[in-house]
């Protein structure tokens, strides 16, 4: 697949408007899925029973399967019809609705399945929104600035997570043992303070997603494709395009496979990081949120720095260096103990997560044919979901085989190493010699 010819340069305002969606999306990633509501759902609503955690895994896994089936076709149809921004708006709106709906999930076991359904549906529509949103990167960047703009977006996401986590922790969660929580004195009975956090997160995402739809224009319909295909026709065309893609640009297919592996390892770092911090390194339960804030700061700085380096050397060296850095930090974590060591080497590891995520996105954007970015990012989401069981399975297997929770790190390192080895022979995209004229933050 030839390197993408980007849209005409755009101004700083459009870049910021695009990146604010990343800032707002932290409400779903950081608050709903990672640090707050999923914990409330399993520990409070599910009474801390293992069955509740297993049910959450099944719900998210089922959502991942549906995403794998839907993402490439829906991304393709949005490209062809010139409705990429519309698709982002629809899926974002549905995500916000599911987030607000979580307010109905009371601290009672009878509400567990309602929470699981809302989280599962929310995961699906959020991932579909991300497919179209990532495809819009080509509308706010030139070949010479795509790396730093992607890095800026990732950094905004991390920073948005930091700010919102601090807001909800200090305002709604801290000191919740006496019937009221946070400096706002929110009642904690029936999980009201956590349910209110879900509404705050939904409003946050809505507020910061709006600039994207006001400032960034819609993409033009693809000139060489029908405006609309049926579902069956979309899948037939998808299979044909995959065959063509492999014949004409096999390294694009190879990258999709390699990135699926190492992105699963990146996801596992956040999924199991808090568990390991408390269970292995003795980090206090209250300090885990503080570590999460610090980790987001470090990852944001890494994404910003990596984006600028990428515009000079290309995305592949940044990804390779980041994976090597994470593997090295993970190996050290296998042998050290104590909260201090976890803070040092855990933050060192997260320093490399941001550049790996950002440059993986721009690697694909540089490969995409103009007008078909949504389809390719749909495949990106599909391949990622296709192997999303690997890190959790290897984490659990390592713990079982070695009889120690710390050994779960080995499973994550194996997936990261496999992704690195798969990426090594992949030919990187061509770099533009020009820097373009678009303003970047």
UniProtKB/TrEMBL annotation:
Q: Which UniProt keywords apply?
A: Membrane, Transmembrane, Transmembrane helix, Transport
* Regions crossing the membrane: 20-41, 53-74, 86-105, 111-131, 152-174, 194-216, 253-282, 288-306, 318-336, 407-426
Q: Which Gene3D superfamilies match?
A: MFS general substrate transporter like domains
> What is the annotated localization of this protein?
Cell membrane
- Topology versus the membrane: Multi-pass membrane protein
Q: Which GO terms describe its molecular function?
A: transmembrane transporter activity
Give Gene Ontology CC terms. plasma membrane
Q: Where is the Major facilitator superfamily (MFS) profile domain positioned along the sequence?
A: 1-431
Q: What's the protein name?
A: UMF1 family MFS transporter
Q: Which organism is it from?
A: Pseudonocardia kunmingensis
């Amino acid at each position: 697949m030839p390197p993408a010819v980007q849209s005409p340069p755009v101004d700083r305002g459009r870049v910021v408007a695009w990146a604010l969606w990343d800032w707002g999306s932290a409400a779903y990633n950081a608050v709903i899925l990672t640090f707050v509501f999923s914990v409330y759902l399993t520990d409070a609503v599910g009474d801390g029973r293992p069955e509740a955690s297993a049910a959450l895994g099944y719900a998210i896994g089922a959502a991942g399967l549906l995403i794998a089936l839907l993402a490439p076709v829906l991304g393709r149809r949005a490209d062809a019809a010139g409705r990429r921004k519309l698709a982002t708006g629809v899926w974002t709106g549905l995500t916000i609705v599911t987030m607000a709906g979580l307010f109905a999930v009371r601290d009672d076991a009878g509400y567990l399945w309602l929470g699981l359904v809302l989280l599962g549906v929310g995961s699906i529509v959020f991932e579909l929104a991300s497919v179209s949103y990532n495809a819009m990167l080509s509308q706010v960047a030139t070949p010479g600035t795509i790396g730093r703009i992607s890095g800026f977006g990732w950094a905004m996401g991390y920073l948005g997570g930091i700010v919102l986590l601090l807001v909800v922790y200090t305002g709604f969660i801290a000191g919740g043992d006496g019937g009221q929580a946070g400096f706002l004195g929110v009642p904690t009975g029936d999980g009201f303070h956590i349910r209110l956090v879900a509404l705050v997160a939904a409003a946050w995402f809505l507020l910061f997603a709006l600039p994207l739809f006001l400032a960034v224009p819609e993409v033009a319909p693809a000139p060489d494709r029908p405006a609309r295909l049926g579902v069956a026709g979309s899948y037939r065309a998808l299979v044909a395009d995959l065959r063509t893609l492999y014949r004409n640009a096999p390294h694009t297919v190879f990258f999709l496979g390699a990135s699926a592996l190492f992105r699963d390892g990146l996801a596992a770092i956040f999924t199991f990081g808090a568990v390991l911090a408390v269970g292995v390194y003795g980090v206090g339960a209250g300090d885990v949120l503080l570590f999460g804030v610090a980790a987001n700061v470090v990852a944001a700085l890494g994404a910003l720095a990596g984006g600028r380096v990428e515009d000079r050397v290309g995305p592949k060296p940044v990804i390779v260096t980041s994976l090597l850095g994470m593997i090295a930090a993970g190996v050290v974590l296998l042998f050290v103990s104590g909260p201090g060591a976890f803070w040092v080497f855990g933050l060192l590891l997260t320093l490399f997560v941001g550049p790996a995520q950002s440059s993986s996105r721009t690697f694909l954007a540089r490969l995409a044919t103009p007008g078909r970015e949504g389809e390719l990012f749909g495949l990106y989401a599909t391949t990622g979901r296709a192997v999303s069981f690997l890190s959790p399975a290897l984490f659990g297997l390592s713990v079982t085989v070695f009889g120690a929770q710390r050994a779960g790190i080995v499973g994550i390192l194996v997936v990261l190493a496999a992704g690195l080895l798969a990426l090594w022979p992949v030919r990187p995209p061509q770099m533009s010699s020009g820097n373009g004229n678009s303003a970047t933050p």
